Each structure stands twice: as structure tokens, then as C-alpha cells.
Amino acid sequence: QYESGEGNRYVSRKTALKMLQLSLKDFRKLCILKGIYPREPRNRKRAQKGAPGIKTLYHLKDIQFLMHEPIIWKLRDYKIFAKKMGKARALRDFEAIKRYLENRPHVTLDHIVKERYPSFVDAIRDLDDCLSLLFMFSTFPSLQHVPRDQSALCRRLTIEFLHAVIASQALRNVFVSIKGYYFQAEIKGQKVTWIVPHHFCFAPQSTMEVDFRIMSTFVQFYSVLLGFVNFRLYHLLNLHYPPTFAVLSADATEKTLVDEEAFVSERVAALNVPLFCTGPTVEEEVEMDQFPMIEDQTKLEEVKQEAEKVKKQKTLFKGLKFFINREVPREPVVFTIRCFGGEVSWDKLLFVGAAFDESDESITHQIVDRPHMGKQYISRYYVQPQWIFDSVNACELLPVEKYFLGAVLPPHLSPFIDKTRQLYVTPEERALEDPSLAEINPEDEEESEDEESEKKDEEGESEEEVLRDDEESEKANETELNKKDEIMEKKKKQMSVSMGIVAREDPTEKRHQERQEHKLREKMIKKKHRNLYRSMMKGR
Amino acid sequence: MVSRQESIGVGRIKKRVSKKNKKSWRKYTDIKDVDSFLDEKRLEERLGTPFADRQDHELFQIDKEADEGQKADLVVRLKKPQKPIKCFAILEERSAVPDPIKKRNRVRTPEERKHPLAKKIKADRKEQGILKKKEVIALRNRALAKAKKNNKPKKGEFNADLWEDTDNGNTVDLDVEWLTPTTKYHMLKHTGKLKKKMPDKFLTKPYEIPAVESPHPGMSYNPSYGDHQNLLQEVANKELILIKEEKHLKRVTSKMFSRVTEDEKESMRMKEMSEGLPEAGEDKLKQNLDEGSETDSDYRAINPPAKNIKKTLKKRRNMKEAKKEQIQHKESRSEKKKNSDIYRLKLLNQELEAKDKKLAKLREKRERVKAIKEKEPKQLSKRKFEPLDLEFNLGEDLKGNLRSVKPEGNILEDRYKSFQRRNIIEPTIKQRTRRAKVKRYERKSHKMGWETKGY
């Protein structure tokens, strides 16, 4: 019993620990590093071999796979090292402590990263989690189970990644929420979304809700992953890794640099400096393929328009010069502006790397978040930071008037299209996308044509289902736009697909009918068979 | 010159030759040494002044560069001088009276104990640079360890492109397709390019939902009215569900019991506890009689003791026969029924169809439930997954500008719960590790009698 099937496919956690001869902490660390997850069986009683209750189960094959992992030896070495250190510390043997610390065992995760992500695109798919965690950890001080250098490493890696996104102009959407800043970039065709926390005062993390040891293990693995991803991204963009910038000789000779590394790293962290290129910058010009055979003209149009929008978005802030005031959060705004080709600077006393001063005459926009501003220059616009984020989401420079100092801002809408919420389009959103929707003039053909095409673009994805059903009719209408067809089209737009009513058959009615039919057929039996039939029915 | 047979070395027998004539004299004389001497002299003349006459500085150069490697090898690590050992301190002289024998306990130091000849040989060897084999091995190992330490990869350094071979098109080209699999395996293994492929099972993720879910539009720091209301509605709905549950629980538990005041409760308790106890100031006989009759009438056997009544053989036989008859009766009835079942075919068909339909419906339902369950977090351990509350800002908190945004929600917690939701880690709580209470005591032999504490 329990020898075959589900019975021998799963092992409990205790059995796994015995097989691997590891402690629970080491086992959990190993599972996280290798990507082994606990499973839920279809029938718990069979999987647990008749034991009652709910146990944590793992696939037997997973554990057998783990047994050949060389990292297990490193974990055991670390345990021995910890024991020796503890003894030396208790005996106050400082020589021994120093000696052990010099030969401390290190865990290398390169082969595991390669194992779990055989190709680069696989690694990019998993970057969401990785980035959010690392951005969070870069804001931490050293906590109980978080090593001291992890926070610095996270900060370094995240900044390198931001530079890579800037250089490849991969950012597509920004959303500012109460939780943090949501960024969405497109790398190698994959959409990567991550959250950056608000930079307010540090809120102490409670260990009661979150297990820091586990999160630290995740961060360890993800930092290695991000390091390699950065390396490859930089090489694909022909940038030198680790990032450096061409230091002007005048600057270097002026002051005696105390620590050149710190100098470089600080300026890199400022996100304001273009990085040192090893080769010509790679411009990815992906040509749109022509598919004349496919009937889906509308979808093709959509995709083409999307591509054009993206292209336009890349040079959104080109030629514009921004100055960020002190109360505006520096990093996300600088990152967003730089991604779209703008030049930006800030107050010299705030952070390193300020390129130009507030009094520079060529500044086109100054980003302010206060209700009033002391000295105002005429040659520049004073806008609130939401203008930048909304412009990025709309892929064009929005009119600045709505975002002036002290103005009541229009709502900051989410650019993420969520399939479960798409059916509800707020009236504000509709008004935003189609400002002239309220005043459609049926006589003005061209205007309405533009509107419809615009509508198709912007609401194209959200009303995909609607469009798919009305495709045929719309296609016909596209070719000849008369007044009549226009009105028809408008009507069809208001048509919607709704759930059909299921035709229910009444069982009693059915039975009644059947009985009647049966009686009719009985009447039709031939005379000579009637007696026999009667006797048969009697026996029932 | 020709040597005589007596003074010949082993194995060489030189024949004696006569040097009578000039010819034989010229042939058999050996003038090699003279020739070589003269050759050297002429060579020296050709090169300039003869070597013997040259100055030191023309022939030799003093090497002024520091030779690091060599010096480091020969430096001996001195041991730290030991501090005087505390436990021997008592053996030292502590009185003012000096010992008549000045060097009473003097022993030779290890240095003095060594034989001078042995010391001299060692010093000579050291001077000449001759090392013992174990020292040679030790030096070699030290060099290796140093090199290894220098080559060790540093923690934050990323030097290699991990995906170079898979993504740069360094795959097997088409030309090789005609080779048999065994050949390919052999070739790859011996050129070191054999890569183990991970089974697809390990590369699939245990979750369907995206890692970072798109936020509710009402969570924006400056949301539109409709979106914000939506979000508040969702939050309110969740709260309502919780309130409803709480109410229901209250209704079926606490409200079922009637409320009593403290005094009433006290009196009831006294009454209950004093049941059956004799009360002061009553006729005891009367009580006993009453109690006796009451107890007699009250006594009912609820669970009387089991009596061991044996069944007689006759009874057993009868029971067996009755049972047999029952079974037979059943069988005959079922046989008879089988005969008439032919006429019930239609009904049977109907029944089967009904069953099929029911099963189909059940199957559909199960599939639907399965689809929903896939999206939900799986039950991986004893603890149930507890989702976080939605983050929202009330109307008065929405200030409309970035400077006065009121941040809600902790990203770390959110990520932690997201891992649990995606079945990557199982929900756990922090285990309280209870430290063992160590008992301290002092040995009886060491006790002095003035301790206040136990130890």
C-alpha cells in the first residue's frame, strides 16, 4: 500500500531533511536558491501515506535532484565554520577568529543561475520580483539576519540596471501609487514591471510579519541574477561594465581625489551622467513585417500604431532641460526624464552630480511641488511632477496649463491594462482620451473619422472583444464612409456582447409529452399482438 | 703520453707503442692540454685584454634590485614570546632571603641544548640555501594557497557572460545532423562542451498570475473620483463580509445563552454546589425516608451490568437456518426480477442516461472549481494563507500633490505575501525558541557557608 502512484511520489519535509542531512534553515535556503517548491497533492491522504493532518510535501524527484547539489557541502562547511567561530569567540581567541574570518566559506550561485535560466529571455521574465525586492532592500540598514554588504550591493546593482534602461530607452509606463512608483519597461520584447518605494523616512520593519532570513536568501540569489543580467545588457548596448564615465582630465587634476571609486560610484548613482561606450550605440530599428494575407487589418493597424507611438515616445523629452526643486523626489523623476532623452539637474547641495544651476537661462521646465514659488523666471514653465508622469503615459507632451503651480491636477490614471477591470472605463478616462466625444458632429465626416481611428487606437485593446465581433461590419464601413454608414457605425459601437439566456427545457413538460406519445404508440399496436403486450405489461 | 699498463684504469688496456722514429713520435704524443691553453690565450687576445687583467667592474654587475620572492621564502616567522605562565608564578622566589645557590633550578634553553656541530651544519645549509624537502613542499603549498586566494571570485564582481553559449548562436550547426547520437555524445563529452539539460519540470513556475500585479487604478496618489470610489467600495465590501461573519458567530453562540446578573449567578452557583448536602435545622429521619423513597424511585439502571447468557445449540441452529432462508429468499427475488428486467429496458436506459448527465455536470463543476483553485494559493502547509488588506487612502488623505502623499502598505510584506500566494514558500509563523533554563549550583566541597543565594 502507498508503494505506487501518489503514495511514493511525495515526501514530507521531515523525510526530506533526513535524506539530505541538513537542518531546516539550510534546507529552506537551499530550496529557495534552487527553485524547489512545496507541492499540493490531489489526494492528501494517499500522498501522506495515510497520515492525518496537513504536512508540507515535496516531490521525491525534486529532493533526489537536490542531493547532487555541490552547494550542500558549502552549507555544511559554513555550519562547521560557525561552530569554530563560536568556540573561538567564547575562548577569546582573537587570532583564531581572524584566521577563520580570512578563510570564510563562500557560496557561489553562478551555476544555479545558469541552471534555472538557460536563456537570457528566461532571466528577463523573472526580473519583476527581483527588481522590486532589490529596490526595497537597498533602502535597509543592516538588520538582524541581513548582512551588511547586501544593502550596498543591492543599491549598486539597481542603479546599474537603471542606467541600462536609460541607455536602451526601454521605459514605457510609470504609475505613482500610494504604495510606491510602478515602472514598466520593455526589454527584449518582455514587459518588466517593478515597484520602487517612496523615499520617506525609514519605517522600521517588524520581524513578526516577515521572515527576514528567507527574504535575505531571495535577495542573495536575485542579486547574483541581476548582476549577470546587467553584465549582458551592458554588453548588448556596447557599454563598459562596471559602469564608468569618461572623466574629464581637467576635473581630475583640479582636486586630489581621495577615493576615486567613491567618486565614480557617487556620480553613477546620480543617474545624470552618460556612460562610457566601448562601441557605437546600438539602435534597434525593428521593421514591421507586412502580412498582406491576414484578414485582421484592424489588429495590424493597431500594432503599427503602437509601434509608432513607442518610437515617438523615445524622443519625448529631447531638447528639453529640466530643473528639479528640492521637495520633489529626485531619483524617480530623474530616471523618467533621462529615459526619454531629457537633460536634468537639481540643487547642488542636494546630491552630487548637478549639471547646471537653477539660474541657468536655458532651462525649459522647472519641476516644483510647492503652492507658491519665490523667484520665477519667465523663460521657463513651472510644472508639478505629475506632468512628467502623465506625459510619459500618454506618449506626448501634454499641455502644461493644467499642471501649473497651485492648479488642481487632473487625476493620475493607471496605464496598466488589467483584463479583469477593463470593462469599466471611467467617464473621466473616456473624456481624457476623446475630448471631443461629447460633441460628435455627424455632418463633419473627417472629424468623426479621426475620432473613430483615435478611439480604435486608444480603446482598441480594452474593447478588443467588442471589436472582434463587429469586425466584419466595421471593415465594410471603413471602405465607404457615408453619413448613413457613420450613424450605423456609431450605433454598432454602442452594441455590446452580453450573455445569452440558456434555453431551459422543462422536465415535467417533457415527461408529459413523452407519456402522450407512448400512449399513442400503444394504440397503434396490431390487434393480434395486443394480448401479448397486455400480458407483458401486466407482469411489470 | 702513453701510460704503462700498471697505471691503467678499469677496462682500458692501452697497447704499448714505440716512439722510435719521428713519425711515431709525432703520432702518439698527446698535446691536447697545450693546444687548449694556447687556444684560450689567442681567444683572449682577440677579445681584448686578457680576462685575468680585467677589472672587477668590467666583468661583474652588482644587482641592486630587490628580490622579493626569494627574500620572503627565507624569512622565518618568529613565534611570539610567551607570557609568563600564571600557574607557575607561585614557584618563583617570593621571600627577601636570597637563595645561597644562585642558579639552583637552571636548565639549558633548547638553543643551548643543541649540539654545536648540528647548529653549525644547519647554519651552513641555510647560508647556502639548501632546504629540507618538507620546507620545499611547505613553500610550494603556501604559494598555491596565495594564488588561489587571489583568484577567488569576489562577492559583487560579475566578470563573465553567463548566456554566451546559448544566446550567441554557438549551437550545433546543421552540418552535424548526420552524426549518430552516440558520436555526438562522445564528441561533446571529450571536448568539454557537454551540457546537462534541466528537465522541463524544474523550469516551470508553480504560478499563473504575474509576479507584480497591476495595481487598482484607485491606488494612484491622485486618483479619479470613480476609481477611488471603486476601491473604497471593494474595501468596504470586504469589511462587510467580515462584519457579517462576526455577527453570525455571535448570534449562534453568545446570544443563545441568557444573561444573568452577578448576584443571581452567585446564588445559582451556591444552590448547584449544595445539592444533596444536609441542611441544618431539619428533621433528619423524615429527610432520610423522603430521600430513601426518592432515591428508590429515582434509581434506574441506565447501563446495567452485562449478563453472560449463552445461546443454546437449538437457538443457534434456528438462527443459522433463518439466515440461510433469508439469503435464499433474496436471491430468488433478484432472479425473478432479472426476468422482468427485460421489460424495464427503457426505464433502465433512462436511469443510466440520468446518471451520465449527473456525472457530466459534476465533472464540469469540478473543472470549474479546479480552474478557480489554480488561481488561488494552494494549501501547502498547516497554516492557511492570509492575504494582505488592500491599501487605500481615505478621501481626506488625498491631498492631490506628490509632496503630501500618505504612503500605505509595506513593499517587503507585499512581496513576502506574494511569494506565498504564488506557492513559492509556504505560510509560516515565527517559532518562539525557548531557551533552556540552566540550573546553577555550587559544589558542596566548595561551599563556604555564607552564600545567600542557592549557589
Features:
heterodimer; A: 540 residues; 5 domains; 4-stranded parallel β-sheet; 23 helices; 9 strands; 8% strand; B: 455 residues; mainly alpha; 16 helices; 0% strand; disordered N terminus; BRCT_dom_sf (chain A); BRCT_dom (chain A)
Percent in strands of chain B: under 5%
Residue ranges of chain A: pLDDT <50 for 5 or more in a row?
A: 248-254, 437-473
In terms of structural class, how would the helical and strand content of chain B be classed?
mainly alpha
* Domain module count of chain A: 5
Mass-distribution shape of chain B? elongated
- Main β-sheet, spatial strand arrangement of chain A: 7-6-8-9
Radius of gyration of chain B: 55 Å
Mean pLDDT of chain A: 82
Shape of chain A: flat
Helix content of chain A: 40-55%
Task: Characterize the largest beta sheet of chain A: strand count, sense, and whether it forms a barrel.
Answer: 4 strands, parallel
Number of helices of chain A: 23
% residues in beta strands of chain A: 5-15%
Number of strands of chain A: 9
Largest interface: A-B, 95 and 70 residues
Q: Runs of chain B with pLDDT <50, length 5+?
A: 1-9
Mean pLDDT of chain B: 85
Radius of gyration of chain A, CA atoms, in whole angstroms:
33 Å
Question: What is the helix tally of chain B?
Answer: 16
Strand count, sense and closure of the main sheet of chain B?
none
Describe this structure in words.
The complex is a heterodimer of chains A (540) and B (455). With 540 residues, chain A is α/β, with parallel strands linked by helices. Chain A has helices spanning 13-20, 24-34, 44-47, 60-66, 71-90, 94-102, 110-116, 120-125, 127-137, 148-168, 212-236, 249-254, 260-269, 297-314, 330-339, 386-394, 427-433, 445-458, 464-469, 471-479, 483-494, 507-523, 527-539; strands spanning 10-12, 57-59, 171-176, 180-187, 190-197, 321-324, 343-346, 365-367, 381-383. Chain A has five domains: 6-68, no CATH class; 74-107; 110-202 and 211-272, no CATH class; 311-437, BRCT domain (Rossmann fold); 513-538. In chain A, strand 3 and strand 4 (180-187) form a beta hairpin. Chain A is flat. Mean pLDDT of chain A is 82; it is low at 248-254 and 437-473. Chain B has 16 helices and no strands. The longest helix of chain B has 31 residues, at 345-375. Chain B has a domain at 112-144. Mean pLDDT of chain B is 85; it is low at 1-9. Chain B has 455 residues and is mostly helical. At the A-B interface, helix 4, helix 7, helix 8, helix 9 and helix 10 of A face helix 10, helix 11 and helix 16 of B. Chain B: It is found in: Nucleus, Nucleolus; Nucleus, Nucleoplasm. Chain B: May play a role in ribosome biogenesis.
